[in-house]
């Protein structure tokens, strides 16, 4: 068997089947499945048909003495592969493609809506993912336990990643002092959105920043980042004000000992003569960065939405996934992310993900390029 990125990164996963039933090696099942997903398949029957259509090509680098597995075999195996082990192997693989030092790493959750099972009362699967702005890759995935929320899943995801030197961005759900401490303990920094779920901590910061904003932060240490853009009859001005005057805040809220700066984003938007204004609050552990850096980190956070979540829904049809048994939905989402990373990291063709998927289906030589991207035999 010829080694590929998939076999090298995931060939060591524990096979969930008993030995006497191992007609098809796990690495074959994973390779065929991921190739099928790259080419547009989104269920087990389609994966089987794709494998049969490409059997001669697969035989050129896989040991297929028993042919292509049935859709039932694909379903049975991928429903039972342990997601924790799969996720750890995934992060280890991506970490060989790029590191997170001096990177903006966005952590955010996404619900696979069609996995909701009303008949059994099971909630839809909710996954938390980490997106690297510098590498343009997903670096990890963790499932939120059914009776929990992202607050418990985020620390597990952070444990998978080597975040030293990175800046972690999260929305208000991740704005917890325990998570902030975990990030700083890992020698990283954070920029966290702050909302009313933090009670007095939020109210104190809101009053302080709004009061000083009214005075243009006179007589207080600060930096400001100002941007303006407009098109199609829309004009938007966005000012980010950052101050490191936080000692009073730490004294009032000692659990937030890692905080080094607080910021307010003041946005003014005019559309066809109608003016609206929005203000958002952020906290950071950075002590040596200015408002331009914080503004960039805040903008970069949305990459996880439009470069990962949006791609998974639009290009990979993930929101329509109806798998509701075993670990199938979670593992399928992981394979979607493997496929997306492979396609994004293959840069010989300057086209979008959708066209790359089509080309991989048409051109077996290009598919092999995708499968061996970033691959070394060492």
Attribute tags:
9 strands, nine-stranded mixed beta sheet, alpha+beta, 378 residues, 20% strand
The residue-averaged pLDDT reads 91
Total DSSP E strands: 9
Q: State Rg.
A: 23 Å
So what's the overall shape? elongated
| Beta-strand percentage range | 15-25%
| Structural category | alpha+beta
Tell me the span between the first and last alpha carbons. Answer: 16 Å
Low-confidence stretches: none
Kindly report the spatial arrangement of strands forming the biggest sheet. 3-2-1-4-5-9-8-7-6
Secondary-structure element order, N to C: HHHHHHEEEHEHEHEEHEEHHHHH
Query: What about the largest sheet?
Result: 9 strands, mixed
Total helical segments: 15
- Helix-residue proportion: 40-55%
Brief write-up:
The protein is α+β, with helices and mostly antiparallel strands. It has helices at 5-10, 26-38, 44-53, 55-59, 71-78, 83-97, 150-160, 177-185, 200-214, 247-252, 291-300, 303-314, 328-345, 353-362, 364-371; strands spanning 104-112, 125-132, 137-143, 167-170, 189-194, 223-231, 234-243, 261-271, 274-284. A hairpin with a 2-residue loop joins strand 8 and strand 9.
List the helices and strands and how they pair.
Elements: H1 5-10, H2 26-38, H3 44-53, H4 55-59, H5 71-78, H6 83-97, E1 104-112, E2 125-132, E3 137-143, H7 150-160, E4 167-170, H8 177-185, E5 189-194, H9 200-214, E6 223-231, E7 234-243, H10 247-252, E8 261-271, E9 274-284, H11 291-300, H12 303-314, H13 328-345, H14 353-362, H15 364-371
Parallel strand pairs: 1-4, 4-5
Antiparallel strand pairs: 1-2, 2-3, 5-9, 6-7, 7-8, 8-9
Helix pairs in contact: 2-3, 2-13, 3-5, 6-13, 14-15
């Amino acid at each position: 068997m010829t080694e590929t990125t998939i076999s090298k990164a995931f060939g060591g996963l524990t096979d969930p089947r008993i030995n006497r039933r191992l007609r098809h090696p796990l690495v074959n099942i994973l390779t065929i499945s991921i190739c099928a997903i790259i080419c547009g398949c989104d269920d087990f029957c389609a994966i089987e048909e794709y494998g049969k259509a490409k059997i001669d090509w697969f035989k050129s680098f896989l040991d297929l003495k028993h042919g292509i597995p049935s859709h039932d075999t694909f379903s049975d195996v991928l429903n039972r592969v342990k997601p924790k082990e799969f996720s750890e192997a995934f992060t280890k693989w991506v970490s060989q493609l790029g590191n997170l030092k001096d990177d903006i790493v966005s952590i955010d959750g996404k619900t696979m809506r069609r996995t909701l099972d009303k008949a059994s009362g099971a909630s839809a699967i909710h996954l938390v993912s980490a997106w690297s702005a510098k590498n343009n890759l997903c670096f990890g995935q963790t499932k939120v336990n059914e009776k929990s929320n992202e607050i418990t899943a985020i620390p597990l995801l952070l444990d998978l990643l080597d975040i030293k030197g990175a800046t972690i961005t999260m929305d208000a759900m991740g704005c917890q002092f325990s998570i902030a401490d975990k990030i700083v303990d890992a020698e990283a920094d954070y920029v966290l959105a702050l909302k009313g779920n933090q009670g007095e901590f939020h109210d104190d910061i809101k009053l302080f920043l709004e009061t000083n904003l009214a005075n243009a932060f006179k007589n207080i240490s600060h930096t400001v980042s100002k941007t303006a853009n407009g098109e199609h009859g829309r004009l938007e001005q966005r000012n980010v004000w950052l101050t490191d005057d936080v000692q009073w805040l730490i004294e009032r809220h000692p659990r937030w000992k890692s905080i080094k700066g607080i910021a307010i984003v003041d946005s003014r938007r005019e559309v066809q003569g109608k003016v609206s204004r929005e203000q958002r609050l952020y906290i950071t552990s950075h002590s040596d960065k200015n408002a331009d850096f914080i503004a960039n980190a805040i903008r970069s956070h949305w990459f996880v939405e439009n470069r990962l979540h949006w791609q998974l829904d639009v290009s990979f049809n993930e929101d329509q996934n109806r798998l509701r048994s075993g670990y199938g939905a979670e593992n399928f989402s992981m394979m979607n992310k493997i496929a997306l990373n492979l396609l994004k990291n293959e840069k010989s063709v300057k086209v979008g993900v959708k066209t790359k998927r089509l080309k991989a289906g048409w051109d077996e030589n290009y598919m092999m390029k995708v499968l061996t991207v970033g691959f070394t035999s060492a």
